[in-house]
Amino acid sequence: MAFWVRAAAAAVLAAFLFPALAESRVRHYKFSVVMKNATKLCSTKPIVTVNGKFPGPTLYAREGDTVIVRVVNHVQYNITIHWHGVRQLRTGWADGPAYITQCPIQPGQNYIYNFTISGQRGTLLWHAHITWIRATVHGAIVILPKLGVPYPFPTPDKEKIIVLGEWWKSDIETMISQAMQAGVAPNVSDAHTINGQTGPVPNCSSTGFTLHVESGKTYLLRIVNAAVNDELFFKVAGHQLTVVEVDAAYTKPFKTDTIFIAPGQTTNALLTADQGIGKYLIAISPFMDTVVAVDNVTGIATLRYQGTNAFPPTMLTSIPSQNATPVTESFIASLKSLNSNQYPAKVPLKIDHSLYFAIGVGVNPCATCVNGSRVVADINNVTFVMPTTALLQAHYYNISGVFTDDFPANPQIPFNYTGAPPSNLQTMNGTKVYRVAFNSTVQVVFQGTNIIAPESHPTHLHGFNFYAVGRGVGNFDPENDPKSFNLVDPVERNTLSVPTAGWTAIRFTADNPGIWFLHCHLEVHTTWGLKMAFLVDNGKGPNESLLPPPSDLPMC
Ligand SMILES: *[C@@H]1O[C@H](CO)[C@@H](O)[C@H](O)[C@H]1NC(C)=O
Ligand SMILES: *[C@@H]1O[C@H](CO)[C@@H](O)[C@H](O)[C@H]1NC(C)=O
Ligand SMILES: *[C@@H]1O[C@H](CO)[C@@H](O)[C@H](O)[C@H]1NC(C)=O
Ligand SMILES: *[C@@H]1O[C@H](CO)[C@@H](O)[C@H](O)[C@H]1NC(C)=O
Ligand SMILES: *[C@@H]1O[C@H](CO)[C@@H](O)[C@H](O)[C@H]1NC(C)=O
Ligand SMILES: *[C@@H]1O[C@H](CO)[C@@H](O)[C@H](O)[C@H]1NC(C)=O
Ligand SMILES: *[C@@H]1O[C@H](CO)[C@@H](O)[C@H](O)[C@H]1NC(C)=O
Ligand SMILES: *[C@@H]1O[C@H](CO)[C@@H](O)[C@H](O)[C@H]1NC(C)=O
Ligand SMILES: *[C@@H]1O[C@H](CO)[C@@H](O)[C@H](O)[C@H]1NC(C)=O
Ligand SMILES: *[C@@H]1O[C@H](CO)[C@@H](O)[C@H](O)[C@H]1NC(C)=O
Ligand SMILES: *[C@@H]1O[C@H](CO)[C@@H](O)[C@H](O)[C@H]1NC(C)=O
Ligand SMILES: *[C@@H]1O[C@H](CO)[C@@H](O)[C@H](O)[C@H]1NC(C)=O
Ligand SMILES: [Cu+2]
Question: Where does the record locate the signal sequence feature (predicted)?
Fold first, then answer.
């Protein structure tokens, strides 16, 4: 017995001393989905959590590691978990979006997510991917570089995780299902949270999250936007931030006093505690540059230097206004791939599929709805209808009648997308995918539309990182706009805001066989139908093919 214990300890030690022995570790996690009472804004409600935590546990791994997460569902809701931004090469079964890559883990059931992290390092997030459960079921994923590989920026003294969220006083699942039945917009949240805390609220005992720092040290802040519907500004009074990575891809470092971060995005930034000992306010506030209601309550936390006595924090001299479009555009324009020898930007230069996706909302008749109609959302006029069999299962087992592969490459009835809307705002229902061969190259120009209200749409692609090659206001001009595309060092990411009444162009290589969801990461728009999927066929041989499904894959 003692021998085995010593042998095991020696193996662990060897793993630290000799990195080669430690390559490709397997990391095991258990995620128990349980209800937990939580009190915020002076009121208590039960929430769905992982392991009783809000935000949930941080998942740590190194590049190259295999991650095994056993999810056990102890709640009355169907559950799935998505590992947002993890490439999932050939392991689509572990991606997580309900009815896209798997059927839900039903109450009392469990499922093992099994995937390997390759070619990525930085911060990502995990979250539930069914109805609106991700509001409370989410957490950070920290991917460290391989042992012995340094960061391409000065090594920070410490690292801190900062997860941003949104809080509703009412039960979220009830709220969204009532809103959907009535065909009305769901209520906006009641507060923004920083690491699960709202910040001071009059007459409630809530001080907010405190970020402890020591004078002179440098911190790597791993910032995750796990909010449901709100793009956010992040600011720390008196301190500059140096952005070094987004969506687990290194960027050229740049200094800023404001970070703009959309739901589903992650940003790593260095902060040096180089100011006088004291307390400094941290604030998150929403971005909304159109006439859509948003939770406008600023979330507050405190940066506190060691040795500070209790006195009021240094306030922020300004918080960006809700419609501060120039702040978002200047932040986005500053983001560039690091594009070094070690981390080159591999932007596809020759395009096999050039797609133009008009995204926005529409209005469909609805007999049971308050106004006899409901607001829906669409891509190229297709409002995605969720199947009852997971698309990936239908694809793998050749089950017909679940989806069709005729997703339109272009708007079928072109109109002035950012001008006067068409007279007919109706959309069509469909469960359609766009099919491409393995390793083909794809360009998508997302065109925001003006229907009802133009709006910023943070669009997320599963299974791939893409390069953000171009961006502009108004309608995309296929003749002239490509001339100014950045094909050298565009930022690489998995979620990107399509500007209000504007367009953005992305490129990626479809080197991952399977079915990959694409959707707006504002949950309200996803729910309304702003989603589709890419079907990437197998290439040649097993290394270019989707793996067979695991034996415990949940059934519908
Ligand atoms: C939450 O609190 C209520 C009322 O006190 C209690 O009945 C319920 O069991 C609690 N739920 C959990 C998950 O602790
Ligand atoms: C995870 O997947 C790998 C590769 O398919 C397989 O060898 C391994 O047994 C799986 N592990 C578990 C716990 O399912
Ligand atoms: C939505 O907000 C309104 C106004 O605050 C409130 O009356 C209603 O109960 C809320 N709906 C739900 C489902 O929480
Ligand atoms: C119903 O339609 C009217 C007119 O378009 C609009 O002002 C009102 O907000 C709508 N009500 C709901 C509940 O959507
Ligand atoms: C806070 O409590 C005080 C004293 O009970 C009361 O006068 C005040 O209106 C309360 N403020 C809010 C915002 O509820
Ligand atoms: C926040 O929104 C509410 C409701 O729409 C509005 O009454 C309030 O004036 C807004 N506050 C700020 C600071 O914009
Ligand atoms: C599905 O069809 C393809 C091509 O027709 C075939 O190669 C494959 O074996 C079929 N898969 C299953 C699980 O039946
Ligand atoms: C589209 O609408 C915009 C805004 O009204 C207008 O400036 C533009 O000229 C229109 N474009 C075309 C091609 O009609
Ligand atoms: C969208 O589809 C609906 C239903 O087929 C049709 O009536 C409408 O004209 C289409 N609109 C556009 C812009 O394609
Ligand atoms: C479209 O799908 C929704 C369900 O997502 C359904 O309620 C509605 O009746 C469908 N509309 C048409 C025109 O088929
Ligand atoms: C994918 O295509 C690129 C050229 O676009 C080629 O260099 C590469 O070898 C291909 N990879 C595979 C696995 O086929
Ligand atoms: C849970 O998922 C199963 C399988 O898809 C489905 O039959 C059931 O209706 C779902 N339950 C709820 C409450 O949505
Ligand atoms: Cu959207």
Answer: 1-22
pLDDT of residue 311: 75
Residue of minimum CA distance from atom 11 in ligand 2: 114
The label of the residue with tokens 């798997």 reads 102
Q: Determine the pLDDT at residue 237.
A: 96
- The answer to whether residue 341 is domain-embedded is no
pLDDT value for 16: 42
Continuous H helices in 446-528: 523-528
Per-residue pLDDT at 207: 82
Listed residues 90, 109, 144: the one ending a domain: 144
- 3-state SS class at 10: helix
Q: Pocket residues for ligand 2 (CB within 6 Å)?
A: 68, 112, 114, 547
Give the phi and the psi of residue 390 in degrees, each rounded to 5.
-60, 135
**Residues 223 and 166 placed together within one structural domain of the fold:** yes
Same-domain status, 413 and 499: yes
By the 10 Å C-beta count (0-12 exposed, 13-18 middle, 19+ buried), 431 is classed as buried
* Residues 240 and 321 occupy one common structural domain: yes
Residues 16, 120 within the same domain? yes
The whole-number pLDDT of residue 317 equals: 82
Q: Do the domain assignments include residue 150?
A: no
pLDDT at 22: 53
Q: Is 35 in the pocket of ligand 1 (CB under 6 A)?
A: yes
Q: What is the pLDDT of residue 316?
A: 84
Do 408 and 501 fall into the same domain?
Answer: yes
Residues (pLDDT < 70) of the chain are 1-23, 310
Whether 93 and 166 map to the same domain: the answer is no
From 78, 113, 144, the end of a domain falls on: 144
Residues near 369 by beta carbon (within 8 Å), at least 6 away in sequence:
181, 182, 183, 184
Q: Are residues 246 and 311 in the same domain?
A: yes
Range of the domain at 502: 353-544
Ligand 5: distance of its center to the CA of 206 in Å?
Answer: 15
Residue to mutate, 175, 188, 190, ligand 3, most ligand atoms under 8 Å from C-beta? 175
Q: Quick one: pLDDT at residue 17?
A: 40
pLDDT score of 14: 40
Q: How many residues does the structure list for the chain?
A: 556
Residue with the nearest Cα to atom 5 of ligand 9?
Answer: 428
347 lies in some domain: no
- How far, in Å, is the centroid of ligand 3 from the Cα of 283? 26
| Surrounding residues of ion ligand 13, Cβ less than 5 A | 457, 520, 522, 525
Beta bridge partners of 127: 82, 138
- Ligand 3 proximity of 177 Cβ (cutoff 6 Å): no
Q: Which of 203, 206, 297 to mutate to test the pocket of ligand 5 (most atoms within 8 A of CB)?
A: 203
As a whole number of angstroms, the distance between CA 301 and CA 161 comes to 13
Residue tagged 């996690």 (tokens): 29
Q: Are residues 326 and 365 in the same domain?
A: no
Q: Tell me, what's the pLDDT at 552? A: 98
